[in-house]
């Protein structure tokens, strides 16, 4: 099957699975996913599957990227923070929908590859840095939207809650292990935060500090789950 046909098949699948936001679907259509994955997997670029990108990390499944992006409710005035640049694909999708993306990655080699790809694709409204994203990006805060693309074990990092604008949305996968992870949407109001549980997912863990690019350390503490209220908002 030709790449164009595979892409159309993927878009149809996303629509059937509940992605109704046409701006999100258009962004997925416009960003070449094959540019973000190793050459050996190019024939799978438009399959609805996660793929390895090196350093034990993965580019997320297109349905998960689309769902998280849809739940983020991004518009072209928004300043968005992403934690976990990885391949740069999710950042590229966001860049089509918002004013500016700030993206943080703890593996410097992944970040350098992602930056080169984004540059080759002439996507200019993304600023990246190698750092521990659990600390947020204080110099650029507050953010209208924050998306975390690695799973927190217990609760959202406090700096991310602090750096979210009032009226803002934080999308974050959380769960103690891969079999019990869910995406959560946290809305910040004048008086506090409201947290909703969305779809089940499987993400690589959100880890502290910059990676030394040796085998990754395991997070040393497991905090209590952060759930203020839960309601299912995702049908799949
Ligand atoms: N958004 C990515 C998905 C990458 S997988 C994409 O579209 O390809 C999750 C990424 O989060 C990994 O690259 C991992 O190294 C990174 N990560 C994990 N913990 C982090 C942290 N504390 N700060 C920054 N990046 C982190």
Features:
seven-stranded mixed β-sheet; 25% helix; disordered C terminus
Roughly how much helix do the residues carry, as a percent range?
25-40%
For this structure, the CATH topology is Rossmann fold
CATH architecture: 3-Layer(aba) Sandwich
The overall average pLDDT, rounded, is: 91
Give the SSE map.
Blueprint: H1 3-16, H2 22-30, E1 51-54, E2 57-59, H3 62-72, E3 79-83, H4 89-95, E4 100-105, H5 108-120, E5 126-130, E6 143-148, H6 158-162, E7 164-174, E8 181-188, E9 193-201
Parallel strand pairs: 3-4, 3-6, 4-5, 6-7
Antiparallel strand pairs: 1-2, 7-8, 8-9
The structure holds S-adenosyl-L-homocysteine (SAH).
Overview of this structure, please?
By secondary structure, the chain is α/β, with parallel strands linked by helices. It has one domain (3-235): Rossmann fold. The protein is built from six helices and nine strands, in the order ααββαβαβαββαβββ. It has helices spanning 3-16, 22-30, 62-72, 89-95, 108-120, 158-162, and strands spanning 51-54, 57-59, 79-83, 100-105, 126-130, 143-148, 164-174, 181-188, 193-201. The chain has a seven-stranded mixed sheet with strand order 5-4-3-6-7-8-9. It has a two-stranded antiparallel sheet with strand order 1-2. β4 (100-105), α5 (108-120) and β5 (126-130) form a beta-alpha-beta unit. The radius of gyration is 17 Å and the shape is globular. 41% of the residues are buried. Residues 216-236 have low confidence and may be disordered. The chain binds S-adenosyl-L-homocysteine (SAH). S-adenosyl-L-homocysteine is lined by residues 57-60, 83-84, 86-87, 89-90, 104-107, 110, 132-134, 149-150, 204, 206-208.
């Amino acid at each position: 099957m030709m790449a164009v046909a595979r892409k159309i098949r993927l878009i149809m699948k996303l629509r059937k699975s509940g992605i109704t936001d046409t701006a999100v679907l258009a962004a997925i259509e416009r960003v070449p996913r094959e540019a973000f994955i190793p050459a050996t997997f190019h024939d799978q670029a438009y399959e609805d599957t996660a793929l390895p990108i090196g350093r034990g990390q993965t580019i997320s499944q297109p349905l998960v990227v689309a769902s998280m992006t849809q739940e983020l409710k991004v518009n072209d005035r928004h300043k968005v923070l992403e934690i976990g640049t990885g391949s740069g694909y999710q950042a590229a999708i966001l860049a089509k929908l918002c004013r500016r993306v700030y993206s943080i990655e703890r593996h410097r080699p992944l970040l350098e590859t992602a930056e080169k790809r984004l540059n080759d694709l002439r996507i200019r409204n993304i600023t990246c840095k190698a750092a521990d994203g659990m600390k947020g990006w204080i110099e650029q805060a507050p953010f209208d939207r924050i998306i975390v693309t690695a799973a927190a074990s217990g609760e959202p990092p406090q700096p991310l809650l602090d750096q979210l604008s009032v009226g803002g949305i934080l999308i974050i996968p959380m769960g103690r292990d891969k079999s019990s992870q869910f995406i959560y949407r946290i809305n910040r109001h004048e008086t506090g935060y409201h947290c909703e549980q969305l779809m089940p997912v499987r993400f690589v863990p959100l880890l502290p500090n910059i990676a030394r690019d040796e085998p990754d350390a395991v997070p040393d503490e497991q905090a209590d789950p952060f759930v203020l209220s839960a309601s299912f908002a995702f049908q799949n």
